[in-house]
Design goal:
Elements (H helix, E strand, L loop, with lengths): L3 E4 L13 E8 L5 H14 L6 E5 L2 E6 L11 E6 L18 E4 L4 H5 L6 H6 L6 E6 L4 E8 L5 H15 L33 E3 L2 H17 L3 E8 L1 H19 L9 H13 L8 E9 H4 L15 E5 L3 E2 L2 H4 L2 H15 L2 H13 L6 E3 L5 E7 L25 E9 L7 E7 L5 E8 L14 E3 L2
Parallel strand pairs: 5-7, 6-19, 11-15, 15-17
Antiparallel strand pairs: 1-4, 2-8, 2-16, 3-4, 6-10, 7-8, 9-14, 10-18, 11-12, 11-13, 17-18
Helix pairs in contact: 1-4, 6-7, 6-10, 7-10
């Protein structure tokens, strides 16, 4: 009996993120029964057999191969239990929610969430391991749950779907089958029309070899100029989120009056707030674009909404109209947040979505897709807030006799392994149970987070 072969999705392999490995982790305040988690995960793999598949190539195409037979050398799933005696604080000082805005250097204890896990697509291709691996790390007073997947299989929301299904099985719920059809095939240009020109989305282009060389040169120069940048976690307590959003709304009220379209979300306001601190005051006319991820699970309506549950990639990227770098500080907080909001509104409209998807899928496998003008400044912003990752309920995995206790998520860990260095990236990660919001990204080590415009001091911590 031959292995079952499932093609990767046409959208999943259309972008550079397909070469990344994603690790998502939960820091929980109680000690779980790892056996219960493993049993639930085993049931899920049997219900969603793609999780037991191997990532392979057939010709130039990537595929998932599900082995016809599983044994010790060809495991159906990988579940790792790690026990570390003592309290979690002795091993892992994870960032914590605080009463004021805090910025903490991020330490990546990858082995606590993904011990011996694959770190590259090449490792997946060469190894006889399933595409997903689940790990539970137990301390005397806490538990870490870590999920590792290749980005070509899942985006962040897909990882959430896997863990959400595990928690539902733990509660005795039934799990829906995954859809078998690729919902993005309607956006594939037919062979008889592939030579016809296709509209390019705003601020995007297919890089030529010279564009790649130029971009890498600018990237190297930026790295040399801003070597003080490091990966950090930022926590905004509830009152600061409200304060920042209110200032943005007050700015819009002054500048646009009672225009009902002049509003921004708390996410828009936090992005603007961070952009103003990432970029120092300058009179530079260097062009700036902000790339912002949008979840197609929310926005795609035609020809049909994406099915649920949907594991695969569904993040599109909108690009803000070009601004001079100096505008980051000449614009008010509200105007900058509104610049992001208008971009999201316009570029997720049905016609714009159709154009972007067809263009990206048509250009899959060509030179890197990016934005223009090449050589300008840029920031990439992701938004995971609507995944509600810290709200997943692991309580059903507590040991027998602890029924009724509630497990709380204290911190959400996330990292990725990529074949290229990443910079200029920030993300809205999750809403904390306290009402605050977690962000992360590459920020300056300098104290640029000081009291300004009525905000409390941004406390910079080095550990």
């Amino acid at each position: 009996m031959s292995n079952q072969v499932i093609p990767t999705g046409v959208f999943d392999t259309s972008g550079n993120e397909k070469d990344s490995i994603v690790v998502t982790g939960w820091v929980l305040d109680q000690v779980l029964d790892a056996g219960k988690v493993e049993t639930a995960y085993c049931k899920l793999v049997q219900r969603w057999p793609i999780l037991s598949s191997r990532l392979r190539t057939r010709g130039k195409k990537w595929v998932y191969e599900i082995p016809s037979k599983f044994d010790a050398s060809t495991p159906q799933y990988i579940f790792k239990k790690v026990v570390i005696p003592g309290p979690i604080e002795k091993t892992y000082k994870y960032p914590k929610a605080s009463s004021s805005i805090s910025c903490t250097v991020k330490h990546d204890p990858n082995d606590l969430f993904s011990q011996d896990g694959p770190r590259s697509v090449g490792a997946y291709m060469k190894s006889n391991i399933p595409v997903a691996q689940l790990q539970v790390t137990l301390f005397d007073d806490a538990t870490l749950v870590g999920l590792t997947t290749p980005h070509v299989l899942c985006d962040g929301h897909g990882n959430k779907e896997i863990i959400n299904a595990v928690t539902r099985i733990l509660r005795g719920e039934d799990i829906e089958d995954l859809p078998s059809a690729d919902p993005f095939t309607p956006f594939v240009i037919p062979d008889d029309k592939k030579d016809e020109p296709i509209k390019t989305p705003p601020f995007w282009k297919v890089f030529s070899t010279w564009d790649i060389v130029t971009f890498m040169a600018y990237l190297a120069a930026d790295f040399i100029k801003t070597r003080d940048i490091s990966n950090r976690d930022i926590f905004f307590p509830k009152e600061e989120v409200e304060r920042i959003k209110q200032q943005a709304m007050d700015d819009l009220k002054k500048e646009k009056g009672d225009d009902p379209e002049a509003w921004v979300s708390s996410s828009d306001a936090l992005i603007a707030f961070c952009l103003k601190r990432v970029h120092p005051r300058s009179s530079s006319t260097t062009p700036l674009n902000v790339l912002y991820s949008a979840n197609l699970r929310r926005y795609l309506k035609h020809p049909a909404p994406l099915p649920r549950p949907f594991l695969h990639n569904a993040a599109m990227t909108v690009v803000t109209p070009t601004l001079p770098l100096s505008a980051i500080h000449t614009l008010s907080l509200g105007a900058l947040a509104y610049h992001v909001r208008c971009t999201l509104r316009e570029q997720t409209a049905p016609e714009a979505l159709d154009t972007w998807l067809k263009w990206r899928i048509k250009n899959a496998g060509r030179m890197s897709l990016f934005f223009e003008p090449n050589g300008g400044a840029w920031n990439v912003v992701t938004n995971w807030r609507d995944m509600k990752l810290m709200e997943l309920d692991f309580s059903a995995a507590l040991p027998d006799g602890q029924e009724g206790n509630k497990v709380k998520c204290l911190y959400l860990f996330g990292t990725s392994f990529q074949p290229f260095p990443v910079r200029n990236i920030m993300g809205l990660v999750a809403d904390d149970p306290s009402g605050g919001i977690w962000m992360g990204g590459f920020f300056s080590d300098k104290k640029v987070w000081e009291r300004e415009d009525g905000f409390k001091e941004f406390i910079v911590q080095d550990s």
